[in-house]
Amino acid sequence: MADEKVPAGGSIDVPVTFECSSSGAIDVSSQTAGLTASFSGTVLTGSDTSDTLLGTTLPNPVDGTLHLVNPGATDAKASVVVLINTTRHLTVTPAADVVARGGSVSFDVQLSEATDSDGAAAYLQDPSGTKTLITLTKVGTGHWTGQVSPTVSGDNKICAETTGDRIRYDSADVSV
Prior knowledge:
There is one protein chain. By secondary structure, the chain is mainly beta. The protein is built from no helices and 17 strands. The strands form four sheets. A five-stranded antiparallel β-sheet has the order 1-9-3-7-6, with no helix packed on it. Strands 2-8-4-5 form a four-stranded antiparallel β-sheet, with no helix packed on it. Strand 4 and strand 5 form a beta hairpin. The radius of gyration is 20 Å and the shape is globular.
């Protein structure tokens, strides 16, 4: 997902990658009406009356450029979401889903279709939204472990994401 700014009376190009997927989709949304979008000659269709909601589905898509046009008199913010059919997934699995405040919980982070160049980063997000980085230890290709000691009661979230190309995200809830 990417948030883009399309200048008034102008256009931008957004690179899109499908990771060699057998199918994909592109969705564009904006609170500004009138935006248009096209990808490799395919015009995205949908609604543009009060907001803009455009999309298209592509069989065997090839990487390319999404062209966004804003005919309006003010800059427009647009969100671009690319959906792909893939078996590459990241999972965060805590040893327990309940932990005492100040106690510790260990967790695994695993990535399918991993390569030696893949990395991962993690953080704990407490109920107020404060994020605390967590150190991960690489166990093997596509496998990391971590441990966290939440200090704020309530619903906390362990979040992880891959680094490099083909980014993936996952999270797991831990009640404190």
